[in-house]
Amino acid sequence: MNTKSLGKQGEDIAAKYLCAHGYRILSRNFHVSIGEVDIIAWDEDVLVFIEVKTRRSDRCGTPGQSVHHRKQQKIARTADWYLHQHHMEQTPCRFDVIEVYLRSDHTWKIRQISGAFESGNSR
Amino acid sequence: MFAKAYGATTLGVDGLIIDVEVDCANGLPSFDIVGLADTAVKESKERVRTAIRNSGIKLRQEKLTINLAPANLRKDNSGLDLPIAVGILAAYGLIPTEKLEKKLFAAELSLEGDCRAIRGILPMAVKAREQGFTTFFTSRANANEALLVKGIQIYALDHLTQLIDFLLDRTELSLAERQETPKCTHPAFSDDFADVQGQFLAKRALEIAAAGGHNALMVGSPGAGKTMLARRMNSILPELTREEALEVTKIYSIAGLLPPNGGLVTRRPFRSPHHTTSMTALIGGGSIPRPGEVTLAQNGVLFLDELPEFNKTTLEVLRQPLEDRSVTIARVNATLTFPANFILLSAMNPCPCGYYGEEDDTHTCECTPNEIKRYTRKISGPLLDRIDIHIRVPRVEYKDLSSTQKAEPSLRIRERVTAARQRQYARMKKFGLFCNAQMNHAILMETCPLDRSAQKLLEQAFRLMNLSARSYDRIVKVARTAADLGGSEKIQDAHIAEAIQLRNSVGVNMN
Fold it and tell me: Is residue A51 assigned to a domain?
């Protein structure tokens, strides 16, 4: 299984997980020239931008760790674009990261980091 | 929602009230601090957020913008943590905004939410009272310092939750009370003039220096006791008045030199920077100017040992503070004036080897005239001119050293000095001065008339010793102090004679 289909599989699992937890999914793989957001969903009245990271093991660090500052800013910029496009600038928002661990026996484990990061110029 | 809390930082030796404006709005979650925050303040973002969370309050992520006004001044005090935290809570609607009116907050927060001590509390509290604040919240470790200011309610905090509960009227908080720190009430000094045998001329010279606020230079061979004498200077200076003590405490508070739980500084400062000290360390500086040694010696003594070993440019910067009793430092961010009212005590050897003019069987001066000239020339005329008293400190005789009799204790000398100071103050109150060294030529002419015989003596000395016009003022000033010490209204011949001796007994040609 290559990394691309691994990622796709992880995102599907995450989407199912979110639906099961009452999220309403607005968009998947929203991508524009400056970047991409894996899943955009409503958690009640909060718009959540979700980055899904899938890994087979912790050998190279947790999936969450790989969402570093530059990547966060890229997602934040894309989210900003989305809000402008839909005239939703005043909507309360949040950035989440969902870690999906896919084991070789096709079982999986999921971890949601709610409010994982913020946008902003400085760290 | 918008909320405003008040914090403070320091600028020079004064406090500065900072408006902490917090706005939280919908949109992409972010947390930004604007308004020229320095690194310590920028980082408060993480401390504040964690402290709030660890105080058991969960905040929804929103677009938070914090503005520190006035925006054009750089803020470098971690004491802004507390007002930022309170401002955020108010912006989220957890604390009613009207509760923050007329209240000033100053403490650093730990990740757990504990309140920590910061520097500069005293000037902040003074400023807060001036600007009409009614209440001042600070950490418990800073309470003693804040309590020096009367007329403002002071609360000491241990934890952020205490403050939140108090502002929500959930719990009572009692006003901070002075915690007694072990204080020595007996005015005994570890360095006492009673330990110095012999050296009567030098002791008398230092007594005059202390009484009139004169600067002094001691010249002598190694081991003669110059440093020993200088270290005892503080023991004969009059006690700090409350205003003076507050001034010193303010400076030490800003420099972060107060001990934890420290209250008022009651001893006059004695600063003796090493001769490798840089210009900036001596005079103050930095991108946000901080006080240097001259300011830290405020109302006390600045002792420069081995004067010619100092960098020449370092010494020359002393000219302005010696003249103006303050120092103005200009930097891109701010131009600040620090007080620098101190007595300059300095010590040096007469020549590089140290024995010029004191040759005996075992020690001979091996320096060439040129070497001596080069050595003494390191101290420029203008600087020397600002030093009223030049004395020679000879080596102590054996019979003085072995004598078991104690010399006169510092306390007795101090009584005379204090009396002399009072006499000066009474005479010069109308000019706004408090010691003889501060007189300018006009005031000198008005307050120090010389009678015929004294005039004559001075005239003789002038011709014989080839004194300059500037020396005239110095000699009269020192004579005036000698007269004050003697309790005499008029300057007599003896006082003039003593002053001349204190001016020119160095034995090395210094000009």
Answer: yes
